[in-house]
Design brief:
Layout lengths: L4 H30 L1 H7 L1 H19 L11 H8 L3 H32 L3 H17 L1
Length: 137
């Protein structure tokens, strides 16, 4: 035979409780995933590295110095800019360090975003694949 009215109501109440519990769990997970303060507390070193790298990246983007220069042209460029060859070489060394820091910070930032944003790593891989396909053609 079929269920009684009381059994049907009990099933509906159980289903409501399950849905309520699932929604609360989902809400908790979303809040945890989007809570940058909590992530900072757990991973302060990573976040500081990302902030530093972002600052270096921003600094390198607004810099007006020439970035690409043949190695043999250092003396000519130093003379043209009014810098001594030693200062010019020091600036080139600083540019190399800055580039390395930007690369390291970018890699770290990608890792942090992959941890925080679900699906980020997969989308990043698709973009990288699309870029490599365009550069081949």
């Amino acid at each position: 035979m079929g269920k009684t009215t009381d059994e049907i109501e009990a099933d509906i109440d159980n289903t409501r409780q399950d849905l309520k519990s699932n929604l609360q769990e989902l809400e908790t997970r979303v809040k945890a995933a989007t809570d940058w303060r909590g992530y900072f507390r757990k991973h302060s070193g990573s976040m500081l590295a990302v902030a530093f790298g972002g600052g270096v990246l921003l600094s390198s983007m607004v810099s007006k110095r020439a970035r690409s220069e043949p190695m043999g042209a250092a003396a000519a460029t130093a003379a043209a800019t009014g810098l001594s060859p030693a200062k010019h070489e020091a600036l080139k060394g600083w540019d190399t360090i800055t580039s390395a820091l930007v690369g390291a910070a970018t890699t770290k930032f990608k890792g942090v975003l992959s941890d925080v944003v679900p699906g980020f790593a997969e989308h990043l891989e698709k973009v990288d694949d699309a870029r490599s396909d365009k550069s081949v053609h």
